[in-house]
Write a structure and sequence with these properties.
Elements: H1 9-12, H2 17-26, H3 29-40, H4 44-53, H5 60-68, H6 76-88, H7 117-121, H8 125-133, E1 142-153, E2 159-170, E3 175-183, E4 194-199, E5 202-209, E6 214-225, E7 230-238, E8 247-252, E9 256-264, E10 273-279, E11 287-292, E12 299-307, E13 310-317
Parallel strand pairs: 1-9
Antiparallel strand pairs: 1-2, 2-7, 3-6, 4-7, 5-6, 8-13, 9-12, 10-11, 10-13
Length: about 325
């Protein structure tokens, strides 16, 4: 009888036991599945063969989609396949299935699979061209675990400064940088926008598109990350060159564990009302619109916990 021999970790660059433990603990599902597959050292066609021996039919394409985050197993039959995968991949029963539950960004009730870059931004060729200049594939190799942003508006109601603290996890190995896209408001002079790395990163290549008020920057880590490894970093963007600002949005291609956005206004220019919203994509209508209070510190904030891929934003109205 033929047996599947697992290649050595050193030869194949397989993830460590610690990486697998962390991926199974905190997810998301696609990262945990991919880490377990690589740790076991089985090709997808061999996994499909083992499943077929148990009377479970699934295509190699579906398995590939699952481990890339482009599909999430949601049907009862698919969950049965995931339970069988736990045995084939030699991990604890229930370790993968629990990541499909809503509290872990699973598929129950809503679609939580990764979104392609074009699904979020549409056919925005300016952004795609900047990413190409930085050799950055749209199917990137990092996803955000948590993120906190402070946005400050200046005395002319302009967007003056953004401070971002982020925790990312590698869902492919050997990644050593994060690419940030900044889009200025109408009237912005993108050549005067400044990027200042603050912690655990340094500035790499910078590319801009003056006509579209776009800036793409590399934030480079001190070393490449292994599959499943995390990296905290912090950076600041200073602008102040654009016109009146009326909203701030953030897009996520993958489910995110926690997001906090705080917007600070400069007296006496305070908005008459603030509200939060979500969008499926950059050009889609607003949904889940909820009014927010302005506190005594002249700021409003929103939080998202275990949110689905898409766009979340905070908007305001001036008098």
């Amino acid at each position: 009888m033929r047996t599947d021999r697992r290649p050595s970790s050193a030869a194949q660059g397989e993830p460590s036991d610690e990486s697998l433990t962390e991926a199974l603990r905190s997810g998301p599902f696609h990262l945990a599945l991919r880490t377990a597959v690589r740790r076991r050292g089985l090709a997808l066609h061999r996994i499909r063969h083992h499943l077929a021996e148990q009377g479970l039919q699934v295509s190699v394409t579906s398995l590939s989609y699952w481990q890339r985050g482009e599909r999430v197993p949601a049907r009862t039959e698919s969950v049965q396949v995931v339970r069988a995968l736990e045995h084939i991949l030699d991990i604890a029963p229930g370790a993968l299935v629990r990541l499909l539950e809503p509290a872990h960004g699973g598929a129950t009730g809503t679609t939580r699979a990764a979104r392609r870059y074009q699904e979020l931004i549409g056919q925005d060729t300016a952004i795609l061209n900047l990413l190409d200049q930085l050799d950055c594939p749209t199917e990137d190799r990092l996803h955000t675990v948590s993120q906190s942003e402070q946005v400050r508006l200046g005395p002319r109601r302009e967007l003056w400064r953004r401070e971002i603290q982020q925790l990312v996890r590698a869902h492919r190995g050997n990644v050593d940088r994060y690419v940030s896209i900044y889009e200025g408001d109408p009237g912005c002079d993108i050549t005067r926008v400044r990027i200042d790395p603050q912690d655990n990163c340094r500035l790499g290549r910078v590319r801009s598109d003056q006509a579209s008020s776009l800036l793409a920057v590399e934030l480079v880590f001190d070393r490449p990350l292994s599959l499943g490894e995390t990296q905290p970093f912090r950076y600041r963007i200073t602008d102040g060159t654009g016109g009146e600002c009326t909203e701030y949005t953030r897009g996520f291609r993958y489910p995110v564990g926690h997001y906090l956005l705080q917007v600070y206004f400069t007296p006496p220019n305070l908005p008459v009302r603030c509200y939060r919203f979500t969008r499926r994509s950059a050009h889609a209508p607003r949904h889940r619109v909820t009014q927010l209070p302005l506190n005594a510190y002249h700021s409003a904030h929103l939080t998202e916990q275990d949110s689905s891929p898409g766009i979340v934003g905070l908007a305001w109205e001036w008098d």
